[in-house]
Write a structure and sequence with these properties.
The protein is α+β, with helices and mostly antiparallel strands. The N and C termini lie far apart (about 70 Å). An eight-stranded mixed sheet has the order 13-12-16-17-10-11-15-14. It has an eight-stranded parallel barrel with strand order 27-28-31-34-35-36-37-38. Strands 41, 42, 43, 45, 46, 47 and 49 form a seven-stranded antiparallel sheet that branches. It has 18 helices and 49 strands. Helix content is about 15%, strand content about 25%.
């Protein structure tokens, strides 16, 4: 039957409407495997993608590569919307059993598993999901024994059937195999094994080999002692956690670059793996680092194998990612917001990068690109328009969302300049002198990025400067949240083993590994499950920024790689008032994580508020699709097929939306196409002009959706990344260095493309050299914020689930038009078509209705319209005529 089914599918003989249940199920699962060949099957009908320009498969077997041009993974179109790819896969060597995968179409649109896919798991599809593979697992247990589990193959009890070796390849005799269950046994060696060493167990006949996991020990290992360097009552304590180290040495230095330590101290180990040293002195300002000692063996990176000093992962101050740590006092936090932290449903968050925001501000050179430069009041551009801090205050937001401010890795300046100082592209992007970054490669989570400190100020003063930034915003009743990156660290970024601390302290404790090596799309995956001290590390860093700076919440980068229980614990520890939202996408490359429902999660069972990408896709289009201006700019761009999705987006009606607080709605964000470029008039470059009418419709749709919202900094002045190239490319440098550029959507390392062009504030299309009405768009966005935070806007600031009638839809046969009444208080008509459209017999609820918004602007006092009355009465029939790409916004007084 399978052979017939395969032939039917590959030849596209069976059309979906007449296909039998088994054929439909196979199409939904997306694969078949026969005779050493794996077939990927993409049915356009099932995915509602009838005419994609191309289809590519990616997954864990490709390390989730986003390369759409590799012909090896491109499917071929057949009849009846079926696309296929045959991959020679003997013994599942290339695509292993239970590998996760997804299809991508067109310019890179990621497609979620189809409804009722039998192999859907964690937002992905699973290859060969029904097969149970032989399982061979071993764990070190207390007393130096091994607990062994064998499933799917014969479990022998003869010690000679096994082979045990240590991390240096030395064979260790097995004295006995003691059965416990049909699959589990205790393996005894004489003498007992050293719990801190690496061992490998083999099952000879089956050809299976596994590392003897430390999980049983590690998952019970915990200490509540304060880690890092802490000064109190004139004494200084140092503590660092390294459970398998045999010796740890602390080095103290007079200066950051002192060639020799002024003092060297052997640290003491406690029963929980914490190494300690105490001094009867206040060592504030002292520089320090460590060496971590242990055996030379596979999977370990102790000093004997890697003669390197490491910094402190809990350091309050670190000299860049590469340098020494510095002892510093605890910081006195900013005073709390007078009105309290905004409730999540009230949040209007504004994502912004410190350097991007401050680079072109008219401040002293020592303040450009700095924390302090961001809060300088009274700044104006040449048109005498408020910019910088005052600009943000006047915008009307209530939450500033700072892109990473924890110490993060820049490549070494000397090596960077040696590689790229004379490169024309690097000069054009203003990155020839240093490695500019957005910061998604955190190295020291308790330190503030020291390159953001006022130039010329002391290393460490960035802490007080950051606290003062929080205070400045709090004084204006604006909350501050920070973007944290706990899912991976700066170690092993770009496939290079940068051993700052965790790799050396114990890679096998801190990270998810396979065959004792890192896994993960971004170089590594931090292991929060089964690792109480890593779970604590995540919670500690959040508490640290609350207790020592007074911040109000967190955006968690790629939170889908953090286990569910840790996120639940984080939410509990921080309290209900702290703002938390994060990215649900991209799960772990560890199948044990993905197969455990207590750890793995996606939007439907999210423990935190997630980025609601379905809202973004409906309103303005998918960020991975941008080639067709008619099909790839969502409903605001005229793609009327998205109308049904828009209704769900506005009303928190997607499948995963349990309440309006389940997701946070947005249009664009830092690593998406900028909204100005998506709605650009030419060349996907918003600097050359923007379709401002559709741009405003996108903004109106976002601001009339329920629940919290986040906007990309500069969207209100149509900030563009148009100076960046469209294509992706790599520039090799000296030694191991490579610079990767990802194109115009993800401009994470192209400084000039990201800067706020402050001189556009106040410009109109009539201004010299201007292609956009920046002044009008800023006023429009300020109006949106004022409306959202007004009494009228309360209808959108809802946290509880809505009734089916909360949004009343004004239906029309023309799919380009959308009308809705929200809670009988707000009335919206939108025409996304190019032609005029009439609405007849519209009856509003009783009361007086005032027109406060159209394309001329949004004003709570009312706006005028050349066709419509400013004030109308409810309970009567009304007629409206809207121009193409226009809208009307009424509120009930």
């Amino acid at each position: 039957m399978l052979s017939r089914l395969l032939l039917l599918l590959l030849a596209s003989i069976a059309c979906l409407p007449s296909a039998n249940a088994q054929e439909i199920s196979v199409r939904r699962q997306g694969y078949l495997h026969q005779n050493d060949t794996s077939y990927f099957l993409f049915d356009g009908e099932i995915y509602n993608q009838k005419t994609p320009s191309r289809v590519v498969v990616t997954g864990s077997f490709r390390d989730w590569s986003q390369d759409m041009d590799d012909p090896k993974w491109q499917l071929t179109s057949n009849a009846n919307s079926l696309w296929t790819l045959a991959v020679f896969n003997p013994n599942f060597e290339l695509i292993p059993i239970h590998a996760e995968f997804k299809f991508r179409v067109d310019e890179g649109n990621w497609l979620s598993p189809p409804a009722e896919a039998p192999n859907a798991a964690g937002g992905n599809l699973q290859f060969m999901h029904t097969i149970k593979v032989p399982t061979f697992q071993a764990e070190l247990r207390s007393g130096g024994r091994i607990w062994n589990r064998v499933e799917g193959t014969n479990r022998p009890l003869n010690p000679n059937a096994y082979r045990l070796t240590d991390g240096q390849g030395k064979e260790i005799p097995i004295a006995a195999v003691l059965p416990n269950t049909a699959t589990e046994a205790l393996i005894i060696t004489t003498p007992p094994l050293d719990m801190r060493r690496v061992y490998f167990l083999e099952l000879r006949e089956a050809g299976l080999k596994t590392h003897c996991s430390f999980d049983s020990w590690f998952k019970e290992l915990y200490s509540a002692k304060e880690l890092g360097a802490n000064v109190q009552d004139g004494k200084t304590d140092f503590r660092i956690f390294s459970p398998r180290a045999e010796r740890v040495v602390l080095y103290l230095y007079e200066e950051r670059l002192s060639p020799e330590a002024k003092e060297t101290v052997e640290m003491r180990r406690d029963a929980d793996g914490v190494w300690e040293a105490s001094f009867d002195a206040d060592l504030k300002g002292t520089f320090y680092d460590f060496t971590i000692h242990g055996p030379v063996e596979e999977g370990s990176h102790f000093y004997e194998a890697l003669p390197k000093h490491i910094s402190d992962p809990y350091a309050r101050v670190n000299d860049d990612a590469w340098g020494r740590s510095r002892v510093w006092y605890k910081t006195t936090p900013a005073t709390p917001l007078k009105s309290g932290i905004p409730k999540l449903e009230d949040v209007i968050s504004y994502e912004v990068h410190v350097q991007d925001f401050t680079d072109l501000l008219p401040v002293a050179d020592e303040l450009k690109g700095t924390i302090s430069g961001m809060v300088v009041p009274g700044l104006k551009n040449k048109k005498r328009q408020p910019i910088g801090f005052d600009y943000l205050v006047n915008l009307g937001i209530n939450t500033v969302h700072l892109m990473p401010v924890q110490e993060y890795m820049h490549y070494p300046d000397e090596l960077w300049r040696k590689s790229f100082a004379d490169d024309p592209f690097f000069k054009e992007m203003e990155i020839a002198e240093e490695n500019y970054q957005w910061g998604y490669r955190t190295s020291h989570c308790f330190a503030v990025e020291n390159r953001y400190r006022t130039k010329g100020s002391e290393l460490g003063s960035e802490r007080e400067q950051f606290r003062d930034l929080v205070q400045a915003f709090h004084d204006k009743d604006i909350a501050v949240i920070i973007d944290i990156v706990p899912n991976h660290t700066a170690e092993d970024m770009d496939s290079e083993p940068h051993n700052f601390h965790f790799n050396v302290l114990d890679k096998l404790y801190y990270y998810r590994t396979r065959d004792l090596d890192h896994i993960g799309e971004y170089g590594n995956e931090v292991k929060t499950e089964n690792r109480p001290m890593v779970q604590r590390w995540l919670i500690d860093q959040c508490k640290h920024f609350i207790e020592e700076f007074g911040i109000d919440g967190f955006r968690i980068d790629l939170a889908g790689q953090i286990d569910k229980q840790t996120l639940i614990k984080l939410r509990t520890e921080l309290g209900d008032d702290i703002i938390i939202y994060g990215e649900p996408w991209i799960g772990s490359n560890d199948p044990n994580f993905e197969s455990n429902p207590s750890w793995d999660w996606y939007k439907h069972d999210s423990p935190i508020t997630f980025f609601q990408d379905e809202t973004r896709d409906a309103l303005i289009g998918n960020p991975f699709e941008l080639s067709d201006p008619h099909a790839h700019r969502g409903y605001a761009g005229g793609y009327f097929h998205a109308k049904g999705k828009v209704k769900q987006a506005l009303s928190a009606g997607f499948h995963d939306d349990k309440t309006p607080l389940s997701g946070i709605n947005y249009l664009d964000i830092h690593d998406n196409w900028a909204l100005a470029d998506r709605f650009a008039k030419q060349d996907w470059n918003g600097l050359k002009g923007v379709d401002e009418e559709r741009y405003k419709i996108a903004g109106l749709l976002l601001y009339t959706s329920v629940g919290p919202i986040v906007t990309h900094g500069g969207v209100e002045i149509m900030r563009s990344k148009g100076l960046a190239p469209l294509e992706e490319f790599v520039k090799p440098g000296e030694e191991w260095l490579e610079a990767h550029f990802k194109g115009r959507d993800d401009t994470y390392n192209m400084r000039r493309a990201n800067t706020f062009l402050w001189e556009t504030v106040g410009q109109t299309e009539k201004s010299r050299g201007s292609n956009c009405d920046y002044k009008g768009m800023l006023a429009f966005w300020q109006g949106l914020n004022q409306f959202r935070m007004s009494e009228h806007g309360k209808v959108f600031r809802r946290g509880e689930a809505l009734s089916d009638y909360y949004y009343q839809w004004i239906e029309t046969v023309n799919p380009y038009q959308l009308g809705y009444i929200v809670d009988n208080q707000v009335f919206v008509l939108i025409n996304t078509g190019s032609d005029e459209h009439d609405w007849d017999n519209v009856i509003l609820p009783e009361g007086n209705w005032k027109l406060i918004g159209n394309h001329s602007g949004i004003n709570l006092q009312g706006v005028k319209d050349r066709k419509e009355r400013m004030n109308i009465k409810g309970g009567e029939n009304h007629y409206f005529r809207l121009d193409g790409t226009s809208f009307l916004l009424y509120v009930r007084e």
